């Protein structure tokens, strides 16, 4: 049924099928499909012809997207962009899986990390973009496109959009810049802040920094037991494992924690608001990049146009300033603002040399085992 | 000659109640029974390395839960916290319920309404508000430092006590209302009879009021226990490492590792545990007591 539907939808989009026949087919299919998700999905697809859905992180990021990309796009094409939000990657992926098979419910998403791209590809949610229809892709750093090409050499299913770092935020009232620089990743194990330490609840970041603390390459950990031991040592020192960016900012602003792993953009927001928070990017700092991923089943003509709008310098720069993460635009090709040049993780060369990103295959292969083990370690076992 | 098909012998079925119930039954079937069946089916499936699910029929997910003490220990913690929460709600809830019952004030209805007031505010907001009260820079620490009682902020957040505080704030009204309704149902003549037979105030309470209010107490305890066992927000927002409860574990498995089959298996185990408790309660005490709190007399 779904294969047939996809064929019919493809024929309709190619112009080989009239709208009347297409809708007629949907009606017949709806009757045949029964109760389990069928008719709801079909009606959704039928209604989706004049719109495309984009899911992002909300807040100032979505505002910038709406103002500089979605609204001009709707004015130019008449296609409405339905602006959805998510709290984190995993819960969004859960929703996407729940909507499987794809085709109408979710279209574009602001995914975090190359490993997420690999996860979506692994689940066969990817599509094949035509780069010739996304002119502004030429303005993007090649160093940011390359990791995606390695995963899907035949065709991209996403365009890189911004980059950032998960470094260490510390309160300068309690920890001097000199001390932070001197200790590096070891700051997260410093006994003087026992009980006032924070960390993200996510498994990957904790293992990454424990690898740095134990003198190992996070993308090639040789002694995982040393990592678990380091994390066991750290657990009693941690006051709170935060679960969202809002909680991270609250913990730092209220001085509940004096140091924590932190997202560079969130720290930049706190600094802008006048909080005495420093940001440390130690050697081996966890760098990541975000992309706009196009789901399987999306109308690619519309997606190409929208991606081009979003990569246009005025939109990309505005979004970057809104969310405080440098854009994927190559600084040697596009003149960026002073505000962006001063953001953490900004690379004026556009080459990203010295930036350490998570190896998607390495981390995804170990996700189930390590995430479960991390739960135990965090529980003090 | 057969007579079984004669209309006179056919049992009459009254379809009216079923017709009236059909919208509710349909909603329950579609929104509760079918999703639960999905969860049960998922619990026998497998997780692919990518996070996709593989249809299968095997008990590996259940075996995994019991194969070492890590997962059962979280279940035991959940039961322990739930029982502790029941005890605290009972102690803290009986007194105000009794006070409302005995009150002759013209503000009595308004006071009862105050019990319902927290329901008008989002549960998340109510839970988050404890951070501003108990935090290092929160109201309580600020006040204690201001009056010179402490020189350093006390660590009041991100522990089991904070979780219990959040749970009690959420669940106390359920306990109070159940006990209050039970007390209201007691025939006042019984108390007068007890007094006329020489009982003092305390004896009358101990011999008459308390025993007759026990159905309300047990209904409140059941409701608080079941709601606590399935709660997710207070441990997440107010708890620290090691304060996770079973609902948080289910969230981590389903959302964090995309392990839907194992998350479903844990959900089924929780469902069976709570179902057994409710069934036992209904078997010996009757479930109808629960509805009285929401119906009044």
Description:
The complex is a heterodimer of chains A (381) and B (297). Chain A has 381 residues and is α/β, with parallel strands linked by helices. Chain A contains 16 helices and ten strands. Chain A has helices at residues 2-14, 19-33, 38-47, 59-77, 89-98, 114-122, 142-151, 177-183, 203-213, 224-234, 245-253, 264-272, 300-311, 313-323, 338-341, 360-378, and strands at 51-56, 80-85, 108-112, 158-171, 197-200, 238-242, 259-263, 277-280, 286-294, 356-357. In chain A, strands 1, 2, 3, 4, 5, 6, 7, 8, 9 and 10 form a ten-stranded mixed beta sheet that branches. In chain A, helix 2 runs antiparallel to helix 3, helix 4 crosses helix 13 and helix 6 (114-122) crosses helix 16 (360-378). Chain B is an all-alpha fold. Helix content of chain B is 70%, strand content 1%. Chain B is built from 13 helices and two strands, in the order αββαααααααααααα. Chain B has helices spanning 16-42, 60-66, 70-102, 108-116, 123-134, 139-146, 160-184, 188-196, 201-229, 233-238, 246-256, 260-284, 288-295, and strands at 46-47, 53-54. In chain B, a hairpin with a 5-residue loop joins strand 1 (46-47) and strand 2 (53-54). In chain B, helix 7 packs across helix 9 (201-229). Chain B starts with 15 loop residues before the first helix and ends with a helix.
Helical/strand content category of chain B: mainly alpha
Number of strands of chain B: 2
The strand count of chain A comes to 10
Quick check: average pLDDT of chain A? 85
Distance from first to last alpha carbon of chain A: 48 Å
Provide the residue-averaged pLDDT of chain B.
88
- Portion of residues in beta strands of chain B equals under 5%
Radius of gyration of CA atoms of chain B, rounded to a whole number:
25 Å
| Class derived from helix and strand content of chain A | alpha/beta
Number of helices of chain B: 13
Q: Tell me roughly what share of residues is in helical segments of chain A.
A: 40-55%
Largest interface: A-B, 34 and 30 residues
Radius of gyration of chain A: 22 Å
Biggest beta sheet attributes of chain B: 2 strands, antiparallel
Percent helix of chain B, as a range, is over 70%
SS element count, helices of chain A: 16
Order of strands across the widest beta sheet of chain B?
1-2
